[in-house]
Amino acid sequence: MNKENSCPLNYTMNLIGTKWKPLILFHLLEGDLRSGVLQKKIPGISNKMFTQTVRELEKDGLVFRTVFPVVPPKVEYGLSKRGESLEDILRSLDTWGLNDCQD
Amino acid sequence: MNKENSCPLNYTMNLIGTKWKPLILFHLLEGDLRSGVLQKKIPGISNKMFTQTVRELEKDGLVFRTVFPVVPPKVEYGLSKRGESLEDILRSLDTWGLNDCQD
DNA sequence: GCAATAACTTACTAAAAAGTAATATAGTTA
DNA sequence: TAACTATATTACTTTTTAGTAAGTTATTGC
Question: Is the model's pTM score more than 0.85?
Fold first, then answer.
């Protein structure tokens, strides 16, 4: 079981190579969103997975999380500089899917 | 549980959004490779996962598989046209990782 | 003073992914 | 004739991922 990365691609995949992470990052490209609004943009994600995934993205410094101390709670998510640097990749993945599924 | 794709990115992720698929496709960018050679380029992948993954890629038309009827067996894998169309994305993912991990 | 609210959090269960190790194949070479 | 080879395949177990449903919070509006 070799855990080292064989190439930078491996490193990238360890960061964002999951089912939900690219989707969440993609929707944040249009701007910061409240937790509930962002979650509604991702059909099929469960409450648990949503929280878990954004928290991992936050831990990895790809998104930031702003908590407004009000009741009921208000939380906003947005892309960090590091997250924004994925923009081209995220849009390429989306465009590729768009073209490919038309064939 | 909504299973429909919310955007083309979702479609793309369903095709290649796993731990090993992008890695395998990436190594095939340099040209066709024998099964064993390709597998050795992917540290940490088990025998089972390797076979399983290339077979899925084949099923999805991203790679082709050529079997030479010799003993011991010889099998070559290569990118299909559809697989090749992922080149920019794969290289972007690799380059992103390269730049990011230097910070 | 009680329900409604948004954003979790937790405990528990179920499902999916991955690892391990044994087995198959059949010509070639020692 | 027995071992060696490359490429799987299979059965089984472990690990990881994900889903479900209930509970928490503290203020506001009724």
Answer: yes
Cβ(B25)–Cβ(B63) under 8 Å?
Answer: yes
What is the DSSP secondary structure assignment for residue A51, as one 8-state letter? Answer: H
Q: Do B12 and A94 touch (CB under 8 A)?
A: yes
Complete edge-to-edge strand list for the sheet that includes strand A74-79: A33-34, A74-79, A63-68
Rounded Cα gap, residues B29 and B41, in angstroms? 13
**Cβ neighbours of residue A101 under 8 Å, at least 6 residues apart?**
B8, B11
Is the Cβ atom of A42 within 7 Å of strand D at any atom? no
User: Tokens at residue B32, please?
Assistant: 């066709």
A vs B: CB pairs below 8 A: 113
Tell me the per-residue pLDDT of A29-66, one tens digit each, with 9 for 90 and over. 999 999 999 999 998 899 999 999 999 999 999 999 99
Domains of chain A plus CATH, in order, are: 8-100 (1.10.10.10)
pLDDT, tens digit (0-9, with 9 covering 90-100), for B2-37: 334 568 898 898 899 888 999 999 999 999 999 999
